[in-house]
């Protein structure tokens, strides 16, 4: 043992004697290892255990026991204690949080991070923003809706492929006003957690059905996890991506659906922007999405037998890029002059894989009405030849 190792070992003995009365028996061995790994930053956790109220000590024990090395090296006592205190404040204040199992509270409300994003001190600010929105909520459903309906106005962030990076922290996204699906999911997860709503990020590193990845949010309601999104307030377990998620390949980890976890798990969440990072824990929830999709398909088949899904994208003109050239307009689909579907095309601030979709008999001819650059109705004739076929329409023809 060299001199530096001796000092670490000596310091650790002192830490144990100071903190062992506060460390939960459940996590005692894991906390011991974490304090050894923290090395020169171990004093941070010594102070935290000394100052933490007894009723919050198990929460601190959980965080330290499961904390990645980057946080053992860098977090401060003040940061930890403030985040923990505010999480417990939300737990005691809101009815839906008071009844949570400890395991859910510790893993999906208490943590200060979801993935590998910068560790912002967001909780006090987000509590001030969102606690007034949920104060009159009668149950967790109303609370989730209140957060999701108001988050865009509160944080002023929209989806864009021009965001600086994928793994933005809350304030990095708020500073530029732009975020990827991942950045939006981080914002929404933190907003939920700030008012005691259990939330985590889910996603896939690569769709089975097409090239690309996507991340979204899951919330814990009445003993079950349900998915939602930044742009889907009040909508659970049904979004544009369910058809792709439901076709995930359960035999290939590259195509699994993952759910983030602060607690150590057998798997790690694949971060497509840096696949070398393996400290973000995850559960494999692929089977649940497959079952959700199969249930939806069975229902649709019963209602619309013999029809196939078709998708429409509307662009300003043919020179526009897929990310920024999309136009929001009402589209009207007709067969033999009779309207069969109506809805809005996806705009540049929405996810790249979101479309205006409808179902129609295979090989049926149909028309789509939309407005040209002069505001006049324009009609495009098309044919539904293939399942999940995508048609690109243009406001202005070059």
Automatic annotation (TrEMBL):
PROSITE patterns: PROKAR_LIPOPROTEIN. It comes from the Bacteria. Coiled coil: none annotated. Residues 130-225 form the Transglutaminase-like domain. Pfam families: Transglut_core (PF01841). SUPFAM superfamilies: Cysteine proteinases. InterPro entries: Papain-like_cys_pep_sf (IPR038765), Transglutaminase-like (IPR002931). PANTHER family: CARBOHYDRATE-BINDING DOMAIN-CONTAINING PROTEIN, SIMILAR TO POLYHYDROXYALKANOATE DEPOLYMERASE. This is Transglutaminase superfamily protein.
